[in-house]
Amino acid sequence: ILEKIEKAGFEAYFVGGSVRDLLMNKPIDDVDIATSATPEEIKNIFDKTVDVGIEHGTILVLYGGESYEITTFRTEGNYVDYRRPESVSFVKSLEEDLSRRDFTMNAIAMTKEGNFIDPFHGMEDIKNKIIRSVGNPENRFSEDALRMLRAVRFVSQLGFEMEAETNKALAKLAHLLEHIAVERKLIEFGKLLIGEYKTKALQLFVDSGLYRYVPLFINFSDSLKNIAKLTDGHILTENEMWALIMILIEQDQESKPFRAWK
């Protein structure tokens, strides 16, 4: 796909989670591609495409039995409802496109030859196991408040530490999660529950105050801390984690003493 785009006279790179996972020797799920070509130009290059997010520069290309999201380099206007940009503008600069991303580890691009473009030192942060925002963390979280839950979810999945300023911004702006749809928050929390490092993530979830803005948990920080203790070192499914949460919350509601469950 990159070769086809480049032969048509445009730039194209692997970006985002696939590059991060490659660098960490983890299985790759979705492959995202960023390009200097506009959506209409991409549609002229490939026979089978779907307009999944054309207004934001994204085209789904069906190729070789797989689907790939290809997004034009872009910058974003002011954000509305702490989640979506009011407008996007197509640009020709890869670095300008990478600068709008959430965390440095997700702001790395790779050419088809395997060369990395890393203007925000994400590779160093991956090596040091640090989650750091791209630029000012308060700006990134104010643009899209769901990024705060994503940060904690990445802690659960990767075991990384939160960079100091990024961590401060979590606590300062946790209240912005009020503006995010419940289903979006629960999707991220569900992924957090099954991460290998969920104990660390749940502790951060409570300490940062994020738990206050996810339905069900506002009065049950102790239950969340107990869940972290009980599940440390154990692999449970998401359903099993939710069952344990409900048991502990029921105990809290009935003012029963905490019991160790095995």
Describe this structure in words.
- The chain is an alpha+beta fold and 262 residues long.
- Helix 6 packs across helix 8 and helix 10 packs antiparallel against helix 11.
- The C terminus is likely disordered.
- It starts with a helix and ends in a 9-residue tail after the last helix.
- It contains twelve helices and 13 strands.
- Strand 10 and strand 11 form a beta hairpin.
Give a short overview.
The protein is of the alpha+beta class and 262 residues long.
What is the helical fraction, as a range of percent?
Answer: 40-55%
Mean of residue pLDDT values: 88
Strand/helix succession: HEHEHEEEEEEEHEEHEHHEHHHHH
> What form results from the Cα inertia axes?
elongated
Radius of gyration: 20 Å
Largest sheet: 7 strands, mixed
Approximately how much beta-strand content do the residues carry?
15-25%
Indicate the topology.
Layout: H1 2-7, E1 12-15, H2 17-23, E2 32-35, H3 39-45, E3 49-53, E4 58-63, E5 66-72, E6 74-76, E7 79-80, E8 84-85, E9 88-90, H4 94-98, E10 109-110, E11 116-117, H5 122-128, E12 130-131, H6 137-143, H7 146-158, E13 161-162, H8 164-173, H9 182-193, H10 198-207, H11 221-231, H12 238-253
Parallel strand pairs: 2-5, 12-13
Antiparallel strand pairs: 1-2, 1-10, 3-4, 4-5, 6-9, 7-8, 10-11
